[in-house]
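Purpose: get a first structural picture of the assembly so the mutagenesis plan has something to point at.
Setup: two entries, given in the order below. No constraints added.
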Amino acid sequence: MKILVCIKQIPDMASKFKPNAANTWFTETDLAFRMNEYDEYAVEEAIKLKEKQGADPSDLVVLSVGPARVVEALKKALAMGCDRGVHIHDDESNLKDPWQIASLIAAYAKKENFDIIFTGMQSQDRGSGQVGVTLAGDLGCSCVTTAINFSLEAGVVTAKRELEGGAKGVVKLKLPAVVTCQLGLNTPRYPTLPNIMKARKKEIAVLKAAELSAEGPRAVTEKFYHPVKKGTGLVLEGEPAALAVKVLELIKEKTTVLRG
Amino acid sequence: MEATREIYWNVGHGVVLPMYFFAALAAAVCVYGFVKRLRVYKLGKPLDRSSSPFLRLRAAALRALGQLKVMREIYPGIFHALFFWFFLLLFAGTLTVMAQVDFATPLLGIYFYKGTFYKIYSLVLDISGLGAIAALLVYSVRRFIIRPRGLETSWDDYAAHALLLLVLISGFWIEGARMAATEMRNNLELARFSPVGMWTAGFMASWPDAKLFSFHKILWWTHMFLDFSFLALIPFTKLRHLFLIPVNYFFSDLGPKGAIRTLDLADEKAESFGVGTVKEFTWKDLFDSDACVSCKRCQDECPAYATGKYLSPMRVVQDIKRGAFGGPDTDVVAAVTDKALWACTSCRACQETCPAGVEHVNKIIDMRRNLTLMKGEFAGDEARAATSSYEVNKNPFGLPPAERADWAAGLDIKPLSGNAEVDIVYFAGCYASFDRRNKAVAQKFLQICGKAGVKVGMLGKEEQCCGEPARKLGNEYLYQEMAKANIQALNGYRAQKIVTACPHCRHTLAVHYRDLGLEAEVVHHTVFINDLIKSGKLELKAGKFDFTYHDSCYLSRYSGITEEPREALQAAGGALTEMSRNRTKNFCCGGGGGRVLLEEKEGTKISAERIKQAQATAMPLVVSNCPFCLTMLEDGIKTENCEETLKVRDLAEIVAERIV
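Result (structure tokens, whole complex):
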């Protein structure tokens, strides 16, 4: 079985983001990077699937698009248990839209004929949630998003996914398939030291983005800025009865809750 | 009449051969017993503890003969010491008889067993025998009747106590029987030097000779067999500690306190890290476990045990022992349980108090290494989150590394990257860099340095966690990553003297970083401030205040720094009332061993227990010296609901407020 897991390296979300010179994205100065949280679930699920294959030889590839720094995220995935890495080197990846990123991955994946592809349901920084589904479209695969449960029996994927309002749905799909992973699917393992050491010897192939795809953007980032501060919090003090009246007035005055 | 006695009186010199035969037999059984145990110790990995043999021998002899460790707890230690010394005298007495009758007389024709020497000898031995019986009775009452909480009694305790008591009592009755037939009849002047023998002889004064002689003979043989049983039983009962503990003293760690083996993470042949099975321990670890007599002093001192956690250091050691005798592949982590392992605060109270010289803390850390490095396990979700934060942000809070130096904005401290001339490098550590309460302490320290004219530099954004909590939680890999980055930076700037806000940072930089190449001198801020005061660079206002002082484990037990902070606080006008547990006997705040990052779900809070101890002094103020302690104790105050009556402050805050 050939498995691909696509991961993104993102800045730590506790960071203070500053716009870059062109105001099109944030500058990377002083930022600390980590693997996108949802992609960690994807890596874990891919490894679990690989481990279930038992004697059946499987090939688990982890792929990331980005500048040289993303190798750190690839190494972590390799230490967790992926077999080999593919780094699509692209210094401009943060300025590319989901269509372009999916095109790059698809250009590589088409040649490899993966049975199944895992990725996070979205990245924590750009958060478009489109790369996975677009990739499925490019490859002509079936696709399930926001999986919180996954199983594969006799070539059929059964996945539970989150719907709006807390509802859940179960879908079945045929291979080849793309699965985008959501919080709750699993608890990513912590790499053991022997596996970290073994991972040092695992191959990471480097591909140049420019040689894979020349697709232009479908959506262009217009401007990157901090939201303007509008209004401030209001602290009410006093007796509970009086406070209730004030709160009711505020609700009537400033919201549409009671307008019918 | 000559003051002496006939050796082998009544039994005759014919007993010499059978006696030596049985002695040799008993000795052979004893040696066999130890050889069997030696095979178990050899299951462990090699460890060199042979450096400076004479120093080791001297220290071991002093500790063993002086009973120094045993008497760290005066009661019941003094009774052990007295028994030991009395028994040693009795043994010396027996050797004296042997030297006279089997060597001096036949080989040299010298007879010294007489006159004043003999009189003193008789008196000393009678007093020793009586003293030994008294001490033995005290501990029999303690062990079998009072039964202190936690003291486990097994069959060999009964055997050892009974055997020793029989040896001593039978000795006095043999003496009495002989004296009833000899000295009591013809040399009362000499009999007075054996008062206990006189007393037992009194019971037999009216016995006919035949009865007296045969009673003496039977008892003599019985006593001999009891003595040899004692010798033969040593390796098979707790009595083995007679040999094992002095030997364990000899092999004690002469290196700096609290050093941990630095794992070679580049060793590609290594398949296993930490200790999961018996054979992964060193021989010394296994030897330690056999030297343990379950005296439960470690358990009595353990803050985790005292607050209802699953951990007992004694049980850990005993679990390892059972594992060791269960074979090389016994899973010791499973035997000890992860629950017990994660509960340890690495406060070292167990190890410091252990009269057997057992090294508890590194065993626990080695087993945590197995859990972390080999199994990818965590003490809890909060440990998982902190580890992830360390990996990315190099601090446990998950706060941006770019903001690490923000606490010092506008203050007189220079990043080393600017090539500033500095007297000291201040290693603030994670808590003083990010935690609101501890930032205030760091800021006060800078104020003190400013007044004293000390130029301070820092790594600033380049500083990472020292790695201590990660290392103590078993994550050697993460520790080394951060340690190496810090060392490279500090060595790169040629740091000469580093001052830390945190005793954990200090110990890690001063002891653990040596293995990885840090060269600078490392001092804790309490010592640095005290030096400034003593050298007159800091002038303090008079103004008395009352306080009690909480020693951080990593300053007191690990580093021996107990007086410097007290001196500084007293120079600042402080009147100190000590808590019952202070200096190297202090009670942990609960934050060591990486526990500061973890929730304390089991039992009661260690910090609250310490706060209760502080409240018992009726002081309005606890002065601490450690960011972890400050955090934990403030938490303890909230738990105990005594915010109004008790405050915790760092020494730096107290001194800074009193600068003229």
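The mean pLDDT of chain A is 94.
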